[in-house]
Amino acid sequence: MRTTCLMLDDDILIDAGTGAGDLTLSQMLGIHTVFLTHSHLDHTALLPMLADAVGPRRDTSLDVYALPETIATLKQNVFNFKLWPDYTALPSLDKPYVRFHPVEVGYPVELSGRRITPLPVRHAVPAVAYQFDSGNASFVFSGDTTYHEPFWESLNAINNLRYLMIEATFLNHNITGAEFSGHMRPQLLAQGLRKLNKPVRLLVTHMEPGNEDATMAEIQTAAGEFRPEKLRRGQVFEF
Known about the structure:
This protein has eight helices and twelve strands. The protein has helices at residues 25-30, 41-44, 47-54, 68-77, 149-156, 175-181, 186-193, 212-223, and strands at residues 6-8, 12-14, 33-35, 62-66, 98-102, 109-111, 114-120, 128-133, 138-141, 161-167, 201-205, 229-230.
């Protein structure tokens, strides 16, 4: 029942949903960078609290990478002195608790030998997927997306792709809901997977609470040859 939050090594978070609440204060203090896929609350809810918890306890800002549209949404609706203090300006403009950095699809960010590249997706709001490339292998997290041809094309261009963590929010019958909200259904996931030109370890996430088993059953029917795995809280992957 936690919402999306991944940890890359011990210093980077990918999204800041309620899963970030599982971190200890010591772990939070070790986080220096956050990459956001999009602005929706289930992916950003704990970012204000994270900034509040770690900001007064260290001398460096929390670097947050996101699309310009995501940054604008958070500055207008969250860090606005109404819903939450504007930690992009506090305690001072020179040393704020949070610094936003815009990303662009296809342009990687290099951090200590790790390359993090935004990939194209289609969702109800501007959003990206991310490729995490260690040099040896790559892990791709789709974030929230419906079927999007450029996303699957970008996966085929990754020579060292090993893991694909991808959403499947709705059951197949909910065509209208999936299209309106920009989410995946098992049939759409299978359609994309059959475009892949390489094997991957397939990790399924972001299923509707209470429908996880039914969703996995539909994925197994539609794309069982790809050996889908239901993502579990606390899993660790090495690449």
